[in-house]
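Input.
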Amino acid sequence: MNVADTLGDLTGQLAQLYAQRGPTVANDLDVDAALHGRSAVISLTRELLFWGTRLREGTRPTLVNQETKPANGLAWHLARHPIPEANRSPMDVAALATPGSAAERWERTATQATLAQMQWDASPSARPIGPAVKTVLADATALALSVSHLDQRLATTAAASGRPDVAKALTSEAVHGLRTSAEATLRHLAREDLPVWRAEVSLRRPRLDVMPMRSPTDVPRGLARLMSLLDAGTNVDPRHLYLVLRGQERIASALHQDCAALWRKTADPNVFDAGRRLTELRLSLQRTNSALRKDVGTIEPADPRPLLQLNECLRALGFSIPEGGRGTQQRVDLAIDQTTTLLYSVEAVGSCVRSQVDGRRWLAAHWNQDETQQSWHKVDRLDHERVYPLVALGETALDLLTRPAVLAAMSAPQPAMAQTATRSHALA
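Output.
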């Protein structure tokens, strides 16, 4: 993996955010996401500039250096550039951001910048030397200039979104010198022909083994591992994913029955709300299953781990709960935890499908008008009839995760969520 390529991708993402027709930030959630993104970009840029200029933190450049080494001044300005803190954590923003929104794009930028910094830190021996150091400084300067251009829009939206602290920080005197210094640095570096640089590094990917399950209390960890496997970007056979969806439907049905029993026993509003979400999730899974039933395939060897992990979770639901977890409150907490992680694992199905489509790994059959001949073609659109229901399923799960609790129906003697489904859910 080449750090220079990653920096190029990051610069392109910032340029797209600046050039897009709609607002780069539209609401308070977008403000937090943008603060995450700019903070990660500034951290990366500072490290590159201080490495390339060999400056120490706190060293103020002289007037002579401003003319002959403008990158020193840029590093000094960037070290003092304000970095307002976000109200929400990156995990909270990622959970609330809708696919394709400005918040999601900013969080993706933050992830890319963090990955580039990890690559840079992991490859000290592969860093460029000689004239190529100036190329690194030029790339870092482009990032700094992108931040300065986007800060003005961010300040305007922050003020309109009720975040005067952010707007004040991004319009203070500390921000004025960054753009001027970045432009001067680019003009100075553009006088020379800068060589191409590379910093190759092979990042170790964690091995996500299938986690064995021994009791229902292990199910939340198993579903979290399933979510990680689906998000890992590995090739998943659509027929395997069909079985995963069937298994998630069975888990939702089993957890729904547990919530119904606990609701009759405790009248806990959290249990009622979990059962309501499970009911809607189960119906969504039933409607979506047929999308991958037949005439789909993959062109690469499939990773069986998601299906194996799902089977482990199903097997664990048949075990008895350990003695230490048989109290009523412990069972309530377990049911809510199981429901939440199940929703996260279903939401990961949408991201898995996007990864397969972006990599053009899936095939779908196409029949002629007489249905006598069949041809296969790569699925490269998210609005494909076999793909869109799965993307919508992930959005439904995300909506259920973020939807506020509904407690108005608590007085009913027999809540709707306590009704058991009549359809059997046998894993094919």
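DSSP finds 15 helices and three strands in the chain.
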